[in-house]
Amino acid sequence: MKRSLLVPFYEHPADRPEGWAALVAAAPALHGVVLNPANGAGEAPDPAFAEAAARLRAEGVRILGYADTAYGRRPHAEVVADLLRHREWYGADGAFLDQVATAPEALPHYRRLAVAARAAGAATLVLNHGTRPDEGYADLADLLVTFEGPWDAYRTLDLPAAPHHCHLVYAAPPGFRPATEVHCAVPGTGAHPWGTLPHEVPEPAR
Fold first, then answer.
1. What is the pLDDT of residue 206?
2. Which of 44, 65, 195, 200 is deepest in the core (most CB within 10 A)?
3. How is the chain classified by DSSP, letter by letter?
4. Neighbouring-strand partners of residue 183
5. pLDDT tens for each residue of 171-188
6. Mind listing the pLDDT tens digit for each residue in 138-157?
């Protein structure tokens, strides 16, 4: 089975143990799981997230520590501190930088962040632009998220699907698969769509 699913599952393991168990069971299909305890690593280790991350790592799944970059406005040191905590507390071997700028003017800032992320142990680096960025960003990361949004918008677009692109689609119908090799399509809607699992990962009934 090809590891093609990049899953941002923003639910606490204590609240949704069955969802995290389903992810562990789907390990052969997972490109990686984005770990986001508190809009980042948080201020202290969370034992439930540490246990969930350990179970996924034991199955060979990449753990990508979430860090918001606020489109280049968040200070470099704060982002790096998040990544170091993810590494120390949860054994993260990758990084998922969110709200990444798209303009070429921000490339020097993100180049520094990419170097720091690699130094913090990120063997896999994902930049989430949510839309298509300047091509210079492709030199910084393993994957660029070039679409994040609802299926209704996605189906009207003719987006490129390069090997280093990833599409994250919510409010997606069953059976739908984004155009990129690495992807995620979930049924969730509203303000918190990433509290649902992708259609390819059957979640036990609660």
1. 58
2. 65
3. ----EEEE--S-TTT-HHHHHHHHHTGGGEEEEEE-SSSSS-SS--HHHHHHHHHHHHTT--EEEEEE-GGGTS-HHHHHHHHHHHHHHH---EEEEES---SGGGHHHHHHHHHHHHHTT-SEEEEE-SS---GGGGGT-SEEEEEEEEHHHHTT------TTEEEEEESPPTT---SSSEEEE----TT-GGGS--TTSPPPP-
4. 5, 167
5. 999 999 999 999 999 999
6. 999 999 999 999 999 999 99
Phi, psi (rounded to 5 degrees) for 65: -75, 130
Distance CA 35, CA 90 (A): 9
- Token digits of residue 43: 């201020």
The model's pLDDT over 14-38, given as tens digits with 9 standing for 90+, comes to 999 999 999 999 999 999 999 999 9
Q: pTM of this prediction?
A: 0.96
Please give the structure tokens belonging to residue 142: 């393993």
